[in-house]
């Protein structure tokens, strides 16, 4: 026995036109107002470097930069960043020339399966910028790590671990990730 109506029309979801500058290229896109930045990047713009891990903001695989600040793209509505500059892992390398962070991850074997690597790289770049401008973390107050010179505090391994805590590596390459970030920080 069929009791459902067949003449019901479901309206399409509301959309909005937004403009983003993604990896230096300005894009105008029509997006579902419910779409996350992650889904817009992967499905709308075919930038699949950013990964969908947990889809709950817990693993960091989806980390990208929005106006030079790291964000979890799975928790960010695309319409909320209309007019923003977005940086993804696809914007790191200059042709065949790797970004220093990418090269350090290769040199220090900072990845195994590589699934978390795009988020780790975006997070590390933003984290180094945060540290350079003097932003503090919980580890900034550890007396054992107080090696203050002129300018920002030395970026110790504990400090790197604290600042990168939101990025999970299921393979456990943390020591190598810390070494890679430390090498880049030491070179700057």
UniProtKB/TrEMBL annotation:
Q: Which UniProt keywords apply?
A: 2Fe-2S, Iron, Iron-sulfur, Metal-binding, Oxidoreductase
User: What's a Gene Ontology MF term here?
Assistant: oxidoreductase activity, acting on the aldehyde or oxo group of donors
What Gene3D superfamilies does the annotation carry? 3.10.20.30, [2Fe-2S]-binding domain (1.10.150.120)
* The 2Fe-2S ferredoxin-type domain, residue ranges: 16-92
Keyword Oxidoreductase, does the record have it?
A: yes
Going by the entry's taxonomy, the superkingdom of the source organism is recorded as Bacteria
> Which pathway does this chain act in?
Alkaloid degradation; nicotine degradation
Which InterPro entries does its entry note? 2Fe-2S-bd (IPR002888), 2Fe-2S-bd_dom_sf (IPR036884), 2Fe-2S_ferredoxin-like_sf (IPR036010), 2Fe-2S_ferredoxin-type (IPR001041), 2Fe2S_fd_BS (IPR006058), Aldehyde_Oxdr_Iron-Sulfur (IPR052914), Beta-grasp_dom_sf (IPR012675)
In its UniProt entry, what is this protein called? (2Fe-2S)-binding domain protein
């Amino acid at each position: 026995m069929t009791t459902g109506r067949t003449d019901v029309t479901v309206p399409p979801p509301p959309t909005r036109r937004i403009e983003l500058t993604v990896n230096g290229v300005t894009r105008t896109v029509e997006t579902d107002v419910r779409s996350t930045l992650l889904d817009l990047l992967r499905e709308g713009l075919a930038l699949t470097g950013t990964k969908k891990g947990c889809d709950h903001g817990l693993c960091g695989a989806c980390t990208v930069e929005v106006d030079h600040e790291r964000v979890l793209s799975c928790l960010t509505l695309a319409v909320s960043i209309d007019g923003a500059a977005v940086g993804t892992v696809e914007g790191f390398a200059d042709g065949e020339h790797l970004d220093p962070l990418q090269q350090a991850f290769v040199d220090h074997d900072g990845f195994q399966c590589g699934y978390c690597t795009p988020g780790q790289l975006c997070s590390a770049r933003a984290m180094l910028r945060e540290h350079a401008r003097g932003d503090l973390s919980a580890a900034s107050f550890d007396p054992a790590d107080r090696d203050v010179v002129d300018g920002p505090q030395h970026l110790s391994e504990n400090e790197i671990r604290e600042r990168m805590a939101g990025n999970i590596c299921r393979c456990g390459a943390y020591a190598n990730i810390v070494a890679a970030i430390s090498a880049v920080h030491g070179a700057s």
